[in-house]
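Ligand: beta-D-glucopyranose. Inputs:
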Amino acid sequence: MKKTFALLLAAIMMLALVACGGGDKPADSAPSDAQTEQPADSAPADVPEAPAEGGTIGVCIYQFTDAFMTTYRNALQEILEGKGYTVTVVDGANDQAKQNEQINTFITQGVDALIINPVMTSAADQIISTVKDAGIPTVLINREPTPEQMAVYDKLVYVGCDARQSGTMQGELILDTPNGGDINGDGKISYIMVQGDPENVDAQYRTEYSVKALTDAGKEVEQLNLTRGDWMRERGQEIVANDLAQFGDQVEVVFCNNDDMAIGALQSIQAAGRKVNEDIYLVGVDALDAALNEVSNGNMTGTVLNDAVGQATAAVEEMEKLLGGATYASGEQSVYVDYVKVTPENVGDFMK
Ligand code: BGC
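Predicted complex:
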């Protein structure tokens, strides 16, 4: 009786398999399927086979609470899943040791490729040597290592933006105001700088190039204060509250290295009874939805689009090139997506 049942079950399973197309595929099925059915040794030795449709991808994000990286990781996940990959996105919780473990776990699990937003740029050497030893094609995002660091591994590429460009655009947003940033007409632009995590080139370059745009235009500048806000809204709020209490009307411009800190800054500007674009200017970077709203309401002077969707798209494109066997020559391992200036005039183009 038991045996008959087992035979019956086996027959049903066979039928189900054939009905679901689990047997041999017709010759005209999708090319990626056809490719995966080739015997492993049919590919030329130096060109790794592209993974089967539905390869597995590990994505490491430096910190889930980061507002910009939230938009970015959601875009990455959507694009990858839309292309049929199995994706796992993990939170490094701003802890490099934790992220190193996550990378090792992905490697042990045998992912086909990694996309990594390092917690610390200074950990790039270690991250690169780990993925190189494991031979995993890797796209680094958002925190740019040096060309020399990347040169050691040819299946590695960085996708990001040139942060100098965003700094320059912030300076230009101030130069484009009716009084060029000199609200009190004393011949100099007095500003406070709210910096991201200074370990990160985005923070370094935005800080430098926003002011450089002013001095390159022949303006005199006065830095009242520079404080690190580590990209976080609450820090932006605290810092600007303190600076306004200390420097009051002297503050003409508030430069924030990102929008989340600028939104925090705006709360303190309003709490101090100041009015953006009348007695103080405020600029950020990212074009977060909240910042676009404030630019459109006149509560921020402007921002700069840090194109999360564009970067996520480019990161996946580069990942697929690597999976297809591409390698990168040293000095050619950075792929940049352009920043775009966002003003009250064009903000509507960026709002959903
Ligand atoms: C973004 C910041 C973000 C940082 C994270 C920068 O490019 O502008 O908003 O916090 O990346 O590394």
